[in-house]
Task: structure prediction
Amino acid sequence: MRSVRSLPVFQATLLSLLALIVAPCAFAAKLVTVEQLSQIIVSSQKETDAEVAKGLSGLQLTERLSDEKLAALEAELPGTESRQTLVILADQAVFLPLPAREIPDRPAPTIQQQEEIIGKSADYVLTALRHMPNLFARMDTTGYQYSPAGKQFQTPTTGRVTAYEPMHVVGRSTVTVLYRHGKEVIEKGGRERDRADSPGAFMTTYGEFGPIFSVIYGDLPKGKLAWGHWVQGQNGLDAVFHFEVPKRASHYLIGFCCIYGRPYRGFSAYHGELEIDPSDGTILRVTVVATVERAPLNQWGIMVKYGPVELGGRKYYCPVRSVAVFRTPMPGPIARFPAHDATMPSMYLSSGRFVPMETQVNDSVFEDYHLFRAKVQIMPDKKNFLVKPKRSRAAHGSSGSKDRP
Result:
């Protein structure tokens, strides 16, 4: 297989949790397939928007919703509340496999063909990073947290018993992301800040514009890469590969605040998928899920989808959507916790007890792409100004337009 050792390795903070909003995930959800979900939505046509949303909030998918299926189901729903609940449901399943019936029944490519596809994608990564122009885009992010209804927990700090709600919106953010000379910058309120160090009201991500590829392809020579399956793309069949990188070879840097009041930052083992256009190696979708050994962190992952964007008369593949998911056991002793249920996302402790999982989801959309060009305003030298004649007092016309930036 073609070597990818020549690819540059960036120690980029792909995910950075700088202000964790915790929420236990201990709701005994009903597990459903995509087909069962479709049937539920069809059978709820006579219900109100709020009723449908409440019903969907009690479900948990066992398969991933494709973009096409998600759009089709959204069109069947009665209102914004139920549509938002469906998106939340789909976001939590972004790392799951597609339904088997949606995977084309085509033979796997030969080893030589697989090597050619990976070789094209490695060339694409080098080319894409080298020729990506300076640009900026609007990033709209909605943050959700999971707080099960009908359950009560005693907080370890205050001892107060707190009731939680189902998954709900905890924040929205709109910022301008600038990609200049391979570096991602956030612009908000007239100020610029490196995305890797940018604090936020909830979970933030970094690396979607290129560094995420450099990390993966730089680590692959010491990891594992295997054929997955074909998937139906916009222009034909796309190739899906699975990869896995051990901690000793990883340059996937994660950081967040906090574990029992202490910030954490370190490299992590990770695994995921690459969806590749076999004709030219363009990467259309990537998932990265960290395998964090240090307790109590459990799951940390990001999915990025790429699409064509025209800039300056040329087509580039840029991020169009990303979903980041963070799950960790609820820290501290839990005085009141319901009986164990197999459908609850949970984690057993060494003592044999188990705790609910805190879950946070960010759904980001990248839109309104533009080339970044510096604005230059040439001002004449005041010394060379011609002396203007004095105006007659009878003249009431405009004295001229002011210079505008």
